[in-house]
UniProtKB/TrEMBL annotation:
Function statement: Mediates magnesium influx to the cytosol.
Chief location: membrane
Protein's UniProt name: Magnesium-transporting ATPase, P-type 1
Membrane topology of this protein: Multi-pass membrane protein
Organism: Lapidilactobacillus gannanensis
Amino acid sequence: MLFSTKKGAITQSKTDALLAASQLAPEEILKQLQTTTTGLTATEVEKRQDQYGLNQVVVNAEVSRWRILGQSFLDPFVIVLIVLAVVSALTADYDGAIVMTMMILLSVVLRFTQEVRSQKASQALKQMIANTCAVTRDGFTAERPMTEVVPGDIIQLQTGDLIPADAYLLTAKDLFLNQSSITGESMPVEKFVGADRLNDAVTGQQIFDHPNLLFMGTDVISGAGQAVILKTGRATLFGDLAKLATAKRGTTQFDRGLRRISKLLIIMMCVLVPIVFAINAITKGDLTQAFFFAVAIAVGLTPEMLPMVVNSNLAKGATTLAKKKVIVKELRAVQNLGAVDVLCTDKTGTLTQDQITLMSHLDPQGVNDQEVLHLAYMNSNYQTGWKNLLDQAVIDYGNLPNHQAMMASLPADLQKVDEIPFDFNRRRLTVVVKNQQHQWMVTKGAFEEVLGICNRVRWNGSIQKLTPDIKKALIQLNQQLNDQGMRILGIAYRIDVHEQATYEVSDENGMVFAGLMGFLDPEKASAAQAVKLLQQHHVTVKILTGDNGTITQHVAGKVGIKNDHFYEGRQIAAMTDEEISQIIEDCDLFVKLNPVQKARLIKILQQQHTVAYMGDGINDAPALRQADVGISVDNAADVTKEASSVILLEKSLLVLEDGILEGRTVYRNTMKYIRMTIASNFGNSLSVLLASIFLPFLPMLSLQILVQNLIYDFAQMSLPWDHVDRQTLLKPTPWQTKGLLRFALIFGPVSSVFDLITFAFMWFVLHADVAARAGLFQTGWFLVGLITQSLVVFVYRTTRVPFFKSRSSWQVVSATAGAILLGFVMVFGPLQHTFGFENLPAIYWLFLPAVVLCYLALSDVLKKLLKVKLN
Ligand SMILES: Nc1ncnc2c1ncn2[C@@H]1O[C@H](COP(=O)(O)OP(=O)(O)OP(=O)(O)O)[C@@H](O)[C@H]1O
Ligand SMILES: [Mg+2]
């Protein structure tokens, strides 16, 4: 039986195996997998790695060299050549067959090496960013790449971890998972041990509800646990179906535009080719020749290089960025970076330094107080969730050598009882600890959220009722500290007389407000400069943070982001999408947001913009996934990294600026190719159509068309290495289908006009007007076509005067020169007759430069006159 989930159908045998495992006791499972809680031995791991292979799903695997080679042969261009070569061999035209075989090999090698290079680049980048998990082997726990995990491995889980493979839960502490990547359901699911051994008539659908089963690609929202791996790689529930965790990013404008253009080119070809075939078959009477001619035209019009040019452009961009410590996980992200016009970012660590330091621990009256520090330390030290910078700052402060005296009076022999993990809606974290004397419940969190659960306060040395007056004084104190740029956490506690063993969120009440912790979170020195550069390049920077308004305004002011007003999460929650889109353009600060609200704001922005999101917390994962480009850092949590398409090895907004410029460069160089292709295809179609109608012979031999095509392909492969005019990088690069079509409709016919002039010259001046002189005609057009089309790239590549005002790179210059030279070698070299070329009279050599120059000049004038946008 099959049933469907968000990821597709999965087989019953897999569910059965997992369900059977879920019914066993932990000891039984360990025995079955021949492992223990101290983990496998090194030799056993090696054995199992051989047996089970890498823990990866197929889609992530590298495409084999053979496959790429196969694909290189499957290209339409090559197939036509193969057919032509076979036909030539059969008709005893051995010279032709040999030449065509050489062309086939050349084209295959070209394509193969380029594809392998692109793939290698992207694989190498992916490997720099390996997801790891904590695996216990031989009694030691260490972070290891997820791909190396084998069945029987013992893994340790904590907040922010991705589940590396399907696993059986051995122990759990408040373990909540996000299974939305497989079920689509975004509510956290609690996982626990033992409750599962009731033999209910379990159906497949319920497998995700099994509290002791964990699935590959899901992630830990909070809590901690230990599990043993059951199945890895393709043997996992979803292994043979889909890619890990991340839901696929939506298509971008670029993808859609590219698809539309490819479709258009193919339609153009499909319409034109039969017409050309019919006309030539009727007027020239030679069916075979007409057929091969039509086929060659089809090959010439196939945008077969498009995917390769796009890929090698992206790979080139990604490699350049890697040198600047920007790792691109999904190649497409390079292009998206170029189109970004809004950058949303969280605050801590991005705009501010990673170095949060605890500055003061104050009692409710604002006086330095050591008890507040003790409470905070108990909270940060004993919590098992994701220790973020705030927790780290508290622990570091307590552990400083010169604070030993102060910490000496920390209650002794503390034991942890329970904890209520942090979440981004409550914005607080509770830990319960006890010793011989007391059991404390200690909460720390955002000021308002902590104040909200208190009914008493430490005031003037005693515990008093939290009166409205005192409350007002506390709010004022908090505001004062915020105004100084201090990040504040509130601390509260309760000494429990009835000692409970487990605690829940509903227990967070009736607490005593103990005081405030003030952190300094200074902005980065480079942040202001980076924000300014981004703004100069027409990228708006917005802050989406979980922190409060005052402090965010403070930081925004320092780094140069508009900070006159802000919206809070709960205001956003009360608004409709339309209402939000009304205010979102004008406001750059959104505060006290939960993770879902961050993602929602991005989704709304995407209606009008291409949006990048930069963040490093687990709370940023949904936003990172939603954005067109998700940007994170290497030391972020697994889920966060998995959700991102770009990873910064050095956390700086300045390198992001480089990334955006590189993305724009890639876009512009890709567009050069696309523009040339659609204009020349359009022009060539027109010329061929007219020539077919009016000429008594074919305007070019099919073999000649193929040679020409191969030479272009070769020359255009240099485009990713071209320079781009600095001034065109100033603005983001939205895709414009209309502009492209306009371009083709202007410059296609312009090139046809010069084809017609050439036809007229060959016909009237050189008297190539009968079938016997077809060779002369064809040679003449071959050279004009090749040279004009090779050189016009210099006109189309810039809005400025080519060569003088805008230099292209040496790669493009030499590739073009090489292409033209190759053309001459073809026409006049030893293979002249094989290709059906002939020598040209002296007067042609006057005509050729004239026609080429006129064509280039007219194109250049037109592009200025008509203000053609070359972006
Ligand atoms: N470990 C913690 N213990 C207690 N409270 C915390 C902790 N971490 C965060 N908070 C509270 O939750 C709020 C939101 O969390 P956090 O600042 O990490 O969100 P964010 O959106 O990532 O913000 P930022 O833009 O500053 O990175 C914090 O301002 C703080 O009040
Ligand atoms: Mg954060």
